[in-house]
Amino acid sequence: MGNDAETGLSAAEIRDLGDIAGTMIPADPAFGVPGADDPAILADIARSVGRDLPLVRQAVAAIAAKSVGGFADLDRDGKEALINDYYAHGGAPAVALGRVILGAYYRDDRVLLALGLEARAPFPKGYVLEQGDWSLLDAVRKRAPFWRDDRTTTAGER
Amino acid sequence: MAGNERVDVLIIGSGASGAAVAWSLAETRMRILCLEQGDWVRSTDLPSNGRDWEARRYTDFDISPNRRGRDTDYPVNDDNSLMKIANFNGVGGGTVIYTAHWPRMHPSDFKVKSLDGVADDWPVDYWTLERFYDENDRMMGVSGLAGDPGVPPRNPPMPPIPLGKTGAHYAKAMNRLGWHWWPSDTTIATTAYDGRAACINLGHCTPGCAQGAKASTDITYWPLALRAGVELRTRCRVREITTNEHGMAAGAIYYDADGREHFQPAEVVIVACNGIGTPRLLLASASARFPNGLANSSGLLGKNLMLHPWPIVSGYVEEALDGGRAPITSMWSKQFYETDPARGFVRGYTLQFNRGTGPANEAITAAATGRLPWGRDHHRVYRELLGHRVGIGVACEDLPEEHNRVTLDPVLKDSHGIPAPRIDYAISENTRRMMEHGIARAEEILTEAGAKRLHASRTVLNSPGHLLGTARMGDDPERSVVNGWGRCHDVKNLFIVDGSIWVTSGGVNPTSTIQALALYIADQMKQRLATLFD
Ligand SMILES: Cc1cc2nc3c(=O)[nH]c(=O)nc-3n(C[C@H](O)[C@H](O)[C@H](O)COP(=O)(O)OP(=O)(O)OC[C@H]3O[C@@H](n4cnc5c(N)ncnc54)[C@H](O)[C@@H]3O)c2cc1C
Ligand code: SF4
Fold first, then answer.
1. Which helix (H) or strand (E) holds A54?
2. What is the DSSP letter of B141?
3. Position B347 in a domain
4. Closest of B108, B104, B101 to residue B122, by C-alpha
5. B506: which DSSP letter?
6. Ligand 1 mean position to B69 CA, how many Å?
7. pLDDT tens-digit series, residues B152-188
8. Is pLDDT of A157 > 50?
9. Tell me: the pLDDT tens digits for B260-288?
């Protein structure tokens, strides 16, 4: 089977990736969020693999190799345990897999809105930062200067 | 090879120091040309314009040139270093993607030998540089608050970044501990400043500010230098600096955007390629006349590399903070900056208090440090993390050691076939002790602030992009590469103005000092024009 021209991944690899992504970040109705295997998010993940293609491929293959009888056939507990164990010890391929999935997941409109965030780029609207309580600085203002003045300090002095 | 018209001054590199020196020298009306291997970066191309703003930190705006891999980058072999190399190659250099934290060195940093008995004193002192620091603060546009008892007096032209929720949270903990803190100086405009718009809290300063509030030299020094007649040619990568029969620099050979080779003759050559790019270029300029590399009779070119080990301790508090919606920089502490022998190490560090990041980066860093699980519990835990992050960077001074160095890689080359730099760097015992001391203090602060799930990351993830010391200044030609005003001891019309001329590294982000030094050197050149090569 040929690879998708845009993503470089084969249909089988995208299917496996979806299974893994949905285990890593499952849909959760209680929080009102889709899983990372949601078709739109998965398509974004596949598109974002880019320069991480070799590492992501390695990760998917490593997870398959660790899954006795195939990852798809493990039960949910088995899948989650395997993923958490693999991620903790899998090195650069595991980190790349996590980064690609999280990067696409946490820019999905539905996910951001469910978190109470605005689904937009930072620019041009920006945000407001409150001044905060500047009177907290009064305690520090009272201190005498304590940087070493080389014009008056000699060796060994503070 | 195409021959170009001779210029009076050829500057190589358009970053922090190259821009400052170009602007300062422009008033001489000399013919000045700057060659820069990278492009102008348009504000509309910066990540914070688009929905993929966080992901681009890991692609075309990654801080590592190896991962970023633009055709304007050169590869760096940093396999033999726990600290990885971070930089940016384009107009503005590293300032395009820096975090804009803006401390100065302390007076004691220039006197480490006489005060603390280690390394060497600098041939210049703080007070000589003071007026250049001030001039540079005006040019870059600095926000901050006068009156800090932890640093020498200075008067930032704009008010500080608001404390916000995160800053106030830290401040309360620091006051309970009785430790010094102060709002950081930054080059982020908090008011409209010299044609720049004020910060609107995009929260994404490091990979470029689409608002133009963060001072990078492409929007500060360069427009003024160009207006004053300096020429800047982009996508021009210098391969070597050539010399003439008098042992003087004759000019530079470079490749233009189409890969064509040119020779650019010049009366004076100024190198501003940073602490990695400069020794690389000078080592690659070895010739029969200078077999060990240009300006390397001391054998110190490329040696004494200092990179500022930068542990980061982070955790999460219960209160909702303002991370990801404001500049990451918040405040500093100088409590542990000056040497105290009772601590078991010499020299010291700045604590840099950060705000949290955006939603994707929060997830990525929390997962990478084992604090965000995969599976059913992911969403619950994530909601306890996003917007609750506190983190403190420990900016450690590493002392110069000759085995920490830049050499030419025997195999790796850039796209023009120029040897890539190879980095050998190890963290000394003194620095290790300093790092652990700083980590322990940061943990104390975060615990006092009510943070849980603490994690200390010691190196690899935290390379701050501070590239220093590989062509050190000094009065003794056997112990230094350039003299006290940036002129190479061996080649009297060759100057170096970037971070490579540092003698020691201080425990602060370096760019305000790099630029103050560049302005000082330009001033010395202007004062000595008639006798520049004597
Ligand atoms: C992610 C990150 C965050 C940072 N945050 C801070 C901060 O908060 N505060 C701070 O003070 N500093 C910070 N820095 C460091 C700051 O960017 C550098 O200290 C500063 O830019 C160094 O100035 P420079 O003039 O020495 O070199 P640079 O600014 O690196 O400029 C060197 C230029 O030379 C060009 N060049 C190199 N070789 C050649 C060649 N052969 N031909 C043509 N051109 C060449 C390069 O393309 C580059 O543009 C940060 C850096 C990074 C990477
Ligand atoms: S927070 Fe301010 S300085 Fe940083 S990117 Fe946004 S507008 Fe620019």
1. helix A53-66
2. T
3. yes
4. B108
5. T
6. 16
7. 999 999 999 999 999 999 999 999 999 999 999 999 9
8. no
9. 999 999 999 999 999 999 999 999 999 99
User: What is the pLDDT, as a whole number, of residue A154?
Assistant: 56
Minimum distance, in Å, between the CA of residue A127 and any CA atom of chain B: 5
* pLDDT for B48: 86
Cβ distance B374 to A24 less than 8 Å, yes or no, reads yes
Query: In whole angstroms, what is the distance from residue B496 CA to residue B474 CA?
Result: 13
What is the residue type of A114?
Answer: A
Burial of A73 (0-12, 13-18, 19+ CB in 10 A): exposed
Assess if residue B301 is contained within a domain: yes
Mutate to test the interface with A, among B45, B353, B374, B380 (most CBs of A within 10 A): B374
Number of domains comprising chain A: 1
- Distance (angstroms) between ligand 2 centre and the Cα of B383 equals 25
Q: Which residues make Cβ contacts (< 8 Å) with residue B300, sequence separation at least 6?
A: B402, B471, B472, B479, B480, B481
pLDDT score at A123: 87
Q: Which of B41, B81, B34 is nearest to B61 (CA)?
A: B41
Is residue B396 within 8 Å of B309, Cβ to Cβ? yes
A90 in a structural domain: yes
> Does the pLDDT value for residue A95 go beyond 90?
yes
Residue A94, domain member (yes or no): yes
| Candidate from A139, A144, A155 with C-beta closest to B114 | A155
Is residue B373 included in any domain, yes or no?
Answer: no
Q: Return the residue matching tokens 């997870």.
A: A63
A144 CA distance to ligand 2 centroid (A)? 33
Q: Is the pLDDT of residue A56 over 90?
A: yes
User: Given pLDDT bands bounded at 50, 70 and 90, which one contains residue B460?
Assistant: low
Domain hosting B396: range is: 2-356+388-531
Dihedral angle over CA of B64, B67, B73, B77, nearest 10 = 70
| Nearest Cα residue to atom 5 of ligand 1 | B98
CATH number of the domain within which B431 lies: 3.50.50.60
DSSP H or E segment with residue B384:
helix B378-385
Grade residue B204 by pLDDT with cuts at 50, 70 and 90: confident
- Asked if B88 contacts B94 with a C-beta cutoff of 8 angstroms, the reply is yes
Atom 2 of ligand 2, residue of closest alpha carbon: B199
Please give the pLDDT value at position A2: 56
Overall average pLDDT of the B333-349 stretch: 97
Helices (H), B100-220: 112-116, 126-140, 164-177
Domain of residue A99: give its range.
11-122
B422, β-bridge pairs: B77, B407
Mean pLDDT of B432-453: 98
- The number of domains in chain B is 1
Cα distances (angstroms) measured from residue B299 to each of A149, B259, B455, B480: 34, 32, 41, 9
Rounded mean pLDDT, B27-44 = 97
Task: Please tell me the predicted confidence (pLDDT) of residue B209.
Answer: 87
Question: pTM of the full predicted structure?
Answer: 0.97
* Residue at B368 is within a domain: no
Atom 8 (ligand 2): residue with closest C-alpha? B209
Across residues B88-94, what is the average pLDDT? 98
Q: What is the SS3 assignment for B461?
A: helix
A134 located within any domain: no
* pLDDT on residue B201: 85
Burial of B369 (0-12, 13-18, 19+ CB in 10 A): middle
Provide the pLDDT confidence category of residue B1 given band limits of 50, 70 and 90. Answer: low
Would you say residue A129 lies in a domain? no
Those of residues 340-379 in B touching chain A at CB distance below 8 A are 340, 358-360, 362-364, 367-368, 370, 373-376, 378-379
